[in-house]
Amino acid sequence: MQILHIPCLEDNYAYMIIDEATKEAAVVDPVEPHSILRVAQENGVDLKLVLTTHHHWDHAGGNEKLRQMVPDIKVYGGSIDNVQGCTNKVENGDKISLGAEINILCLHTPCHTKGHISYYLTGKEGEDPAVFTGDTMFIAGCGKFFEGTAEQMYHSLCVTLGSLPKPTRVFCGHEYTVKNLLFSSIVEPDNVRISQKLSWAQQKRAKGLPTIPSTIEEELETNPFMRVDLPEVQEKVGCKSPVEAIREIRKRKDEWRG
């Protein structure tokens, strides 16, 4: 399983997932169809699927154009998310396959949008899995609660995504890592892993390189929204439950002008 980053717009990422045995490919959130086709041609792949995480234009806005350019392509999206250009609606637990070796599990991760889907991929034996989290989980952050509640974001992040195998690689929808880690270091000023990752991320961005992927293990160490089960994190933000803490950290992040 080969995964390519395709920078789009100002700070979005689309991703191309290639099954190396068959050269069949899927693309996540292809907002710039011309860029997607160029990468497909450069890599000699046959585009089969679009995996749309949610309905916002900067993720789903290229679907219809891509369908015109690749008429046989299937476009997957959450069944209650009203994704433009969607041909195949999916729900939590639905499975899709790509090529000979890639299996895709759809995970309903609502809050940012009510029908947001994250896609969990496994490849051949010995390969670390990958999860495409759209705008539910960012590196050291999470999406704004546009269409849901703190309870939903807690469940999406800490239960659904947090229970994936720790080596799972995390590919999110935007390059927000440096800002997220700056905020995280205010929430947890004594967390050495956060300061180490911040300095690493700043070096990456200075060279124009992506900070993605992370892993579930790294997020459990450095993402305050995924650490709200810890009493010391709850205490830092004056809360007594994980849901209360995730609500308070999101409120502080929304008001932060860092």
From TrEMBL:
InterPro entries the UniProt entry points to: Clx_II_MBL, HAGH_C, Hydroxyacylglutathione_Hdrlase, Metallo-B-lactamas, RibonucZ/Hydroxyglut_hydro
SUPFAM superfamilies the record matches: Metallo-hydrolase/oxidoreductase
Cofactor(s) needed by this chain: Zn(2+); Fe(3+); Fe(2+)
Reactions performed catalytically: an S-(2-hydroxyacyl)glutathione + H2O = a 2-hydroxy carboxylate + glutathione + H(+)
EC number: 3.1.2.6
Annotated pathway: Secondary metabolite metabolism; methylglyoxal degradation; (R)-lactate from methylglyoxal: step 2/2
Enzyme class, UniProt record, top EC level: hydrolase
UniProt keyword terms in alphabetical order: Hydrolase, Metal-binding, Zinc
Domain Metallo-beta-lactamase residues, every copy: 11-174
Molecular function terms from GO: hydroxyacylglutathione hydrolase activity; metal ion binding
Gene Ontology terms describing biological process: methylglyoxal catabolic process to D-lactate via S-lactoyl-glutathione
Pfam families: HAGH_C, Lactamase_B
Highest taxon listed in the record's lineage: Eukaryota
SMART domains listed in its UniProt record: Lactamase_B (SM00849)
UniProt xrefs under HAMAP family: Glyoxalase_2
Similarity field: Belongs to the metallo-beta-lactamase superfamily. Glyoxalase II family.
The name this protein goes by in its record: hydroxyacylglutathione hydrolase
Classification lineage: Eukaryota, Viridiplantae, Streptophyta, Embryophyta, Tracheophyta
